[in-house]
Specification:
Number of helices: 2
Helix content: 10-25%
Order of helices and strands: HEEEEEHEEEEE
Shape: globular
Structural class: mainly beta
Length: about 120
């Protein structure tokens, strides 16, 4: 069983392989973005917006499919349509109604956390 487990870890297409680069469109240009440079992802109709310190770009990968390819230790889903890079969170703010809002280190706009995912930030 130990040998089979070791082979499963080495086989291509296993869950240990994580996305490292994203091909995204910025206007007429297609560019490579390192996943570690992403501040957050947000669903937008048929597309997913990729937010980095340099701006925004679009990819055609659905958020659910994208989430399965990301490292769950680094990227957390905080809303039905939003995945954030935990390393890029600067502050969390909880208002009187219990709603949580994130401030990102490299992006000026606040990111809302839905009530379903607010438990992730209880200890912060």
């Amino acid at each position: 069983q130990e040998v089979l487990a070791a082979i499963a870890k080495l086989a291509p297409g296993t869950a240990t392989e994580r996305l490292a680069w994203i091909r995204a469109s910025r206007g007429p240009q297609v560019q490579l973005i390192a996943v570690e440079d992403v501040s957050y992802f947000q669903a937008n109709d048929k597309y997913t917006c990729v937010f980095t310190a340099d701006g925004e770009a679009l990819i055609r990968t659905p958020l659910k499919e994208l989430y399965e390819q990301l490292d769950p230790r680094t990227f957390w889903q905080v809303h039905r349509g939003t995945i954030v890079n935990v390393r890029d969170i600067a502050t969390t703010v909880r208002d009187l109604t219990g709603r949580v809002t994130l401030t990102m280190k490299r992006r000026p706009e606040p990111v809302a956390v839905s009530r379903a995912y607010a438990h992730l930030f209880r200890q912060m």
